[in-house]
Amino acid sequence: MKEQVLAIVDELKRLKGTGVEHLYVSGEAIRSLKFLKKSEKAEKAEVEEALASIPENIRSASIDDFNKVLAEDPDALKAKIEGKQVPSFAKPPAVSLPEGDKQSRWNALRDLVMGCTECNKHVRAGYKLVFGVGNLDADIFFCGEAPGAEEEEQGEPFVGPAGQLLNKMIKAMGLDRSQVYIGNIMNWRPEMPTRTGNRPPKPEEMAFCMPYLKAQIEIVRPKVIVALGATATKGLYGQESFKALREVKGEWREFDGIPTIATYHPSYLLRNSSHSDKRKAWEDLLKVMGKIGLPISDKQRGFFLK
Ligand code: URA
Question: What are the beta bridge partners of residue 141?
């Protein structure tokens, strides 16, 4: 725990050294810093320095206030400070797919997304919108939350470290990435005031992109959807449908009439090396394999048991 917090401290120092003045720090990181601050063993000076890297309005607030500030739209917050009006987010688009085969419908949808004014408005100069990829006859539709740094560079979902792990998970199921479909709730990387770090998409961003996701699902008509992580699951089941992922994880529900299961996001599995979480995620994938009739070997059944 202490090592992880000190790693946060180092990163804050590094960012400060590069001239970063404002930074959005996750509630979890702030709680960890506060915990360390309280801990008797902590190097107080180091923690004080880290806290000093956080803007005053955040530093002096309670944890609840931190989380309120963190939940605020960075543009809205900036506009509020500058006393400006923030334009409201565009209404979700009405998508109507043309007649034709899967490929031509998918091509038309991709063109629509690539030309979407609202989507393009949020893409950093020199980076790309990210649309779903994969087999249009796939039985499994993996749904992530939003592109990260590598994805916005390459214009493809799940190509960074989380994507490498997702590929391994797919392989462990006896499949290949080219046999599944991979999409995201959102088509652009959520904007941040800094180059580093990611934030989850906001409900209005997710709502805007939802018709594009639904249209991809309508084209592929997979046998199952796998929601990766809490944010994707909230996007599919509704923002208020649960508080903690564990309430819905591993249970079959439906999205647009398609059996849907929520599991851990590969990024979470990368960060959290607990063997039991890996097993829990693998059990969800075993359920998926069972649902679509994939053969399951004894070896596969036993993954992460020892
Ligand atoms: N995380 C996601 O949820 N989607 C991506 O495409 C990459 C990382």
Answer: 181, 225
